[in-house]
Queue: 2 jobs
Job 1
Amino acid sequence: MEQTDLEELYQTVILDHSTRPRNFGPLPDATITVDGDNPTCGDEVHLHVRVGADGGVEKVSFTGSGCSICMASASMMTAKVKGKSHAEAESLLHDFQTMISAEPQPPPAKSLGELRLLAGVRKFPQRVKCATLAWHALRGALETNPTAAGPEDGLDLRAPRKVSTEEDGDGLSLG
Amino acid sequence: MLNQVSDLPSPPAAGLDFAALRADFPALHQEVNGHPLIYFDNAATSQKPRQVIDALVHYYERDNANVHRGIHELSNRATTAYEGARVRAARFLNAPSANEVVFTNGTTEGINLVAQTWGRKFLKEGDEILLLELEHHSNLVPWQMLAARSGVKLKYLPVCGDSGVADESKLDELLTPSVKLWVFPHISNTMATVNPAKEWCARARAAGITTLIDAAQSAGHRVVDVQDLGCDFLVFSGHKILGPTGSGVLWARAELLDAMPPWQGGGEMISSVDFFSAKWNTIPHKFEAGTPHIAGAIGLHAAMDYLDTVGRERIWEHDRELAVRAWRGLQSLGGTRLFGPGEDRAGLVSFVLDDVHAHDVVTLADRQGVALRGGHHCNQPLHRKLGIKSSARASFYFYNTPAEVDRFLEVVAHIQHFFRRGAN
């Protein structure tokens, strides 16, 4: 199979991170956990962060499951962001987002290190959200009052609720 | 690997003239990523034949006008064509009357219509709806929304593990007197199971339970006869059966439609309106407020004509033969987990590869021109039950060939090889 783009997307380093993710597992002394969900494919990244006194990332780990791009991105992100100050983490987040989506594509920031290997994901628009899932969770963690990386509205039939009924007929009359 | 493929059964006996049929589908004749397109995402939507596209073009070029409210020639033509499609849809389903056919924008809208009208009027707090564990979100969330509003309870007939076969031994305990509605898919879009619709409807009828069949995956692939099935409601989408997107049908027994309140208000659904009152139109117009998708119904008419020219019995046989070929091929590759009831299945195969995520499978297949679906196929609770986040799915139609299935198997073998280098 001739597949230059594919070889770029699935480089050995990326496959290595996805099969042996770094910082994978719970973080017992985490101060916050942010859940990143990709509802269209079911990928989940739960980012556990011990926030330092300066609001930086003192410790970080992740749990969950997803495709190789999602797992590799989360693995490389946690390796890179661990021990960073709040400002440094914000800056990494910005650099990664720029690399993945800015038009026209700028040269990837050197600060990203091996994360630059993920630049090739741009050629696969459907996969960009795989690469950015963990980063959305990081953004949530860096916010002052994080709850989750996605919207939470919905219904829960297990919760107590009030029932309403209505009348219908062959027509209506407001009298 | 190729040897394994050649051990498979010889090409289908359904006797379809692939070359002639495929010539009718413009979209099939293109290269994707430098390879001839192999379109195996038919459970999501089908491709469209020239005859359907021509019907749409003809309508917009020659007959375009609003229906039911004009006196002029074009309005007459549009009305005749639109109502002709309704008669055609009734014949397609062997429905007793065209008045029982409500045009919708698809399966999802049809189910929401039933939930919001029949459901809100006839289901009360404490009543129960029986669903199947492999329900598509479209036949699940509308009932959840109804339950949240009215206090109706949902309960589920379980399926047996990876086979996707309903555990009918649980029916005796589940079919309690409080069950008022039983909804289920005719064919599962993920597991390829064919549910015993006729038997279940007979059982429901005997117990006074109303039934709704989600025929999204069956209507274009096999004969669907509402009188033979004995159901109360049946819904399907036009776009999965060669028709335009935004077209679809809700069929219901006339006495049910008569008793149901309207859904949306507007023009066409009324017989008379005063400043402070309104009278509803007769069925099916009571459920079609506003200008309908006229072109969609006309395109759907052409699609149903096309399907019946090919023959739905032959399509059913052909789809299943391709699915069995794919199933056997994937099994002999090894390193795969396959879902569904073995070889007695509808025309699709969902699978996961050991250590390769479905998204990665679909991306690599796409680079080889093979269009698959990867994800939970709008079937998240089932995937959760199976302990997987997502699966890959190949779904077939009559314009697919055994040679395409063999090429697909070759591509899957390459994908396995590709990812082994990462796993060492």
Note: Chain A has one domain: 4-142.
Job 2
Amino acid sequence: MTSANPEPTDGGTATATSPETVPDTLSTGSAASAELLASSVGEYARIMLRRIRGGESGALPVIVGLVAIVLFFQIRNSLFLSAGNLVNLMTQAAFIITLGMAEVFVLLLGEIDLAAGFTAANGAVLALWMMAAGNPWWLSVIAALAATSAYGALQGLIITRLRLPSFVVTLAGLLGLGGLVLFLINSSGRLGLGGVITLQNNIINDIEAGSLSPVASWIVMIALVALAGSLTFLRDRRRRVNGLVAPPQSITLIKIAVYAVAGAVVILVANVNRGRLLPLRGLPWVVLVVLAILTCYTLLLGRTRFGRYVYAIGGNAEAARRAGINTTRIRTLAFTLTGLTAGITGIIYASYLGSISNSVNGGETVLYGVAAAVIGGTSLFGGRGKMLDALLGGLVVGVIYNGLELLGLSASAQLMWTALVLLAAVAVDGLTRRGQNTS
Amino acid sequence: MTGSPHDGARLAEAGRAPSGARDEVATTGEPLLRLRGIGKHFGPVQALAGIDLDVPAGQVTALVGDNGAGKSTLIKTISGIWEPSEGQIIWQGRHVHFRTPKDATDAGIATVYQDLALCDNLDIVQNMLLGHEIRRHLLLDEVTMEKTAKRTLHDLRVTTVRNIRQTVGSLSGGQRQAVAVAKAVMLDARLVIMDEPTAALGVSQTALVLDLITRLASRGIAVIVVSHNLNDVFKVADRIAVLYLGRLVEVGPAPEYDTASVVDLMTTGMSQRSRTANGLAPTPDSGQEG
């Protein structure tokens, strides 16, 4: 029963209450990470199975759902799993994924940012303006990201200082920024003829449109897998060496193998020639951009004080406050990061479209972002979720979008299907919470 | 964001510190905390008046009283939530004024409220070190934190937890209480105030918590327990202080009372069954109040 925490042997002054009178209260505790408790692969599988039955399924529902949707589309149209379409899917899903990541910061606090879609649009307009005016691309991007971060910080300050609900403050932001983006595009004179500002920079354009060479794709992916694998291996070994609960080496190696296989599959798909007239191969740059953001943010949430405090505030804000955490500052910072990530999303979006027009629908886009995070498993009630959720959920949204388009179905079908998937995801979230409460 | 580079070293020391503290207590007679003439009023309502109470280190002081007797007000005054309207708090021989709960916590007074102030979504280690994380190269040092937490739990003999990486939300009531107490101990608390620690617990869980309270005291930590449950009080308390309508009507060593006399004191402010009737002479210590 106490494999991780052996009974102390130094006897002791067991008072009126001897340990024997304390029954095994452990059956309630099933939330521990299965990989830490398992001592073999078989045991790991058994623990995982028990946790799934107990309503704690982690990323499993979204992965199962993704596979099911992919199979559905593949049966209906054999082009769905073609290399060309899969790469297309990666580029389509990228801005939904990054917007989902933007929302994860505030969703973890139990807040929401409805303005993020239009924050992204305004950031894109600013960057495209500056580039059209002859500024270098990096300066334009930095200025756009600074502006969207500043806007995120402003929202955070209003929400935390005036103690207003984020839903309403960011709804105001949604409306106001929606108006602002129209004003900016319509008043941009010859830059925005016909309500469209064109992207005039090859580097930014290549985020979505350009690819690494096939050889470079392999080199980059092997380097990434090697890095992730060795970090995983070293971390698990450090835990084992220090006598802490740690996964068995076989589990560690299986995890690294999964990274390697996933990386290899992506590169194999991306390196197939998908050009019609000219050969076109290699990993789109945007995949690397998304992976880089995912890595940074995962590190930020999982391994820094800021990240720990975000989870703490989302779990129990009063406990966080009593622990001496400056909750106002952390929450403002989270909104700032949402603004920053929305700015990145705007750049990716502009690169995807090659322009920004006054018909940009930031309201719908932000809901896709929220949907991505929630479908991936991030709770709307705060405290639970991670950056990877936005990636998985964003892929689900992207697959529906892409697949229904491939089947020639209208926008109405796309919206309704996305709605059903979102509902299913929220239902899984709710059932999970109920399962935890009753266990 | 908060905390200092010394946190790590301080926490690492936490496991060993109390043995020294205990010797110190044994040699000095000065109570850790002295309240002198503490009063608190909210507008015209007098919640507390003229409270004189000594809280010695290494002992469990039970604070009992009926609803509205002022127990919560008193502990909130000690833990810095409310400043007293009058009177003095003397902590480790020095006059102190706690303006915020943080002042009290920094001085070494930890309060474990009924709601425990734990984050259900975080695991035991994360909860125990919340606000005092140890870092290595700017990143959280999970290994050192887990070792530190493990040692503190081991010192407190909290052994019913299978895995200290499980979320606090999955723990039983007694285990949650244990985590909250371990968190206080880890931050070098010299006085731990516990508000109704057994109120929501079953029999076995109560036993677990009472055991923990005794263990805290044996480590030289002063413990104030606020409780309605006189059974539990008599199991752990070294001293009993009875509040009645905002006044401290009795304080003395626990063996001098029985359930009946304490109930009398709680409900009427006096007891027909005097202490001498139980065959025990009143001690000078307990005679100072009154």
Note: The mean pLDDT of chain A is 85.
